[in-house]
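Run log, item B.
One chain of 189 residues. Sequence copied directly from the ordering sheet:
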Amino acid sequence: MKKYIPRLIIFTGPSGVGKGTILADFFKKTDKNIVYSISNTTRNPRDGEINGIHYFFVSKDEFEKMIENDLFLEYAQYSGNYYGTNKKFVDEKLKEGKSVLLEIELQGALKVMKKCPDALSIFIKPPTFQELEKRLRQRGSEDEQTIQKRLEASKEELNNANKFKYIIENDTVERAVDELIEIYNKETT
């Protein structure tokens, strides 16, 4: 039997590309040797999001205190809100022999890749930019100004896709999940 190798896995892509949907299926179909890293954020919860499951929702003041105390592996501001990865959580899980998957935005992903060059980096891209815009609008969770900000950020993100070890196109969720499982199995054994 092959030995399991716990990995820090960086998972990113533009807002609206389907990262959450892909990961929900991925976690249903994979072993229990991998955990999802829950980020801290100052943004407001979307409908159905639960504190401590989807994110740790904190105030701007709380977040800035955490920055001062060097509690993040990475943090960034995106669309006017802070997002950050808790160092202690990641270190503890890796020591327990579990892989840790970070679903983070581009700025944070690049910072972690620099700090942790052995991390496995995966970028999710849409089949087309027009499809990405359609998906963002269908969510119905943001106003037009926020959608435009996200679309502008998406252009920059897509221009950086080649910095990642793997790029998965989310043309269908099933195919994207299968490709992610294949990468995960290859990289952890």
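Observations after the first pass:
- The first strand starts at residue 8 and ends at 12.
- Strands lie at 8-12, 34-36, 40-41, 56-57, 72-78, 81-86, 99-103, 120-125, 166-169.
Flagged for discussion on Thursday.
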